[in-house]
Design brief:
This protein has a domain at 201-356. 82% of the residues lie in helices and 0% in strands. The protein contains 14 helices and no strands. The chain has helices spanning 10-32, 36-48, 50-59, 64-103, 108-117, 121-129, 136-161, 165-195, 200-239, 244-254, 263-275, 279-305, 313-327, 331-357. It is globular and about 85 Å long. The two termini are 47 Å apart.
């Protein structure tokens, strides 16, 4: 009887297959990495608007191409184009504000000095101990920095809103992928579920939690951020603050951080008005920020996000910050999604271990 051929061992073939899958996956990720943001947002948008796609499929009697085209058109008209117009307006306002800072029309150090002069003596003496009692050197450094790097800063701010070749390519890649995700999303999900080497029950739970967190994070955070940014811009415009739309956009970005984001913009401005003697403006802005802008976060976010994510606020905050640091702006979705997958995977592991340790009755 001949000895078995070691090159045809099932174990060797399985390990070779795993190595091939690993190498191919790494190379695939390297290839699509330049379009990582476009791919992520195509996946996120398709998950958020998947119920609309299902209704279009039913209305078109199963013609998925027509349904996907309708979903893509609606998404483009109600989400992507309005956001592009808002970003263009904010960019224009930012370039004007930076130019005013360079020309000296707006002097931040002067505003800080006014607030310091309104402080009591004990507070000013404490600031002097930390070297912050005299802001004249700080103002000179600020003006020198603006004069030397103002052109670079202005070009970067304006460049955000300019249509570049990279942006055009990434934008059309996202739209192209979004169409096929709408059309073939169900088949892709089934293929992914079959490929994941987990128990079918665990696979369904993992994919369901992934879709739930993406839908809740994108829908809840973006809507809350837009509403809070709009309310902030309205308040700043009424108060006559320069760059009201820009500061509203900053508030919208910081609103992606649960509970604390929006207050990081309106609270310092309200304190500035109060310290400089504009009590009506300061108290009015504080009331508006606490009871109107804050109410949006406390009421609207739970309605949109719901309790399906089952993640505490502190974990959402930390993972959002970490995601933004690691993945950029895309991280405000990727961070909570990774946290949700982390929690679900450990819960499934704990459940599986508990089932194996329970003795049979």
């Amino acid at each position: 009887m001949s000895a078995p051929n070691p090159l045809k061992s099932p174990e060797l073939e399985f390990k070779s297959l795993l190595l091939l899958v690993l190498v191919a996956t790494v190379l695939f990720l390297l290839i699509i990495w330049p379009f990582f943001g476009a791919v992520c947002w195509a996946v996120f948008i398709s998950i958020v608007f998947w119920p609309m796609q299902q209704r279009f499929v039913q209305g078109s009697h199963g013609r998925r191409n027509m349904a996907a085209l309708g979903s893509l058109t609606v998404t483009l008209l109600i989400v992507i184009l309005p956001l592009a117009m808002i970003i263009a307006s904010i960019t224009s306002e930012a370039s004007v504000l930076v130019e005013k800072m360079r020309s000296g029309e707006i002097q931040l150090a002067q505003y800080f000095q006014r607030m310091l002069d309104a402080l009591p003596d004990w507070a000013r003496s404490m600031l002097r101990r930390f070297g912050m009692g005299d802001l004249a050197p700080l103002q000179q450094k600020l003006l020198a920095t603006l004069s030397t790097s103002g052109q670079v800063l202005t070009s970067r701010v304006v460049g955000i809103g300019q249509v570049t070749l990279d942006f055009i390519v990434a934008f059309f890649v996202m739209l192209y992928m979004l169409f096929f995700l709408f059309r073939d999303g169900e088949q892709l999900t089934q293929s992914i579920a079959r490929a994941i080497p987990l128990h079918p029950q665990h696979t369904r739970r993992l994919l369901t939690q992934f879709a739930t967190v993406v839908r809740a994070t994108v829908k809840g955070n973006i809507v809350v951020a837009l509403v809070q940014g709009a309310l902030g811009s309205l308040a700043f415009w009424v108060l006559g603050l320069p760059g009201a739309m820009l500061w509203g956009a900053v508030m919208a970005l910081l609103s992606l951080l649960p509970a604390v984001g929006a207050a990081m913009v309106w609270a310092p401005i309200a304190l500035y008005y109060i310290f400089t003697g504009a009590l009506f403006k300061g108290v009015g802005l504080a009331i508006w920020g606490a009871f109107v802008i804050g109410l949006v976060d406390n009421v609207l976010r739970p309605i949109l996000v719901g309790k399906d994510t089952r993640m505490p606020d502190y974990l959402v905050l930390v993972t959002t910050l970490g995601g933004i640091v690691v993945f950029g702006l895309n991280g405000f979705v990727i961070g909570p999604v990774i946290a949700a997958v982390f929690l679900v995977s450990w819960e499934m592991l704990a459940s599986a271990r508990q089932q194996t340790t329970i003795p049979p009755q």
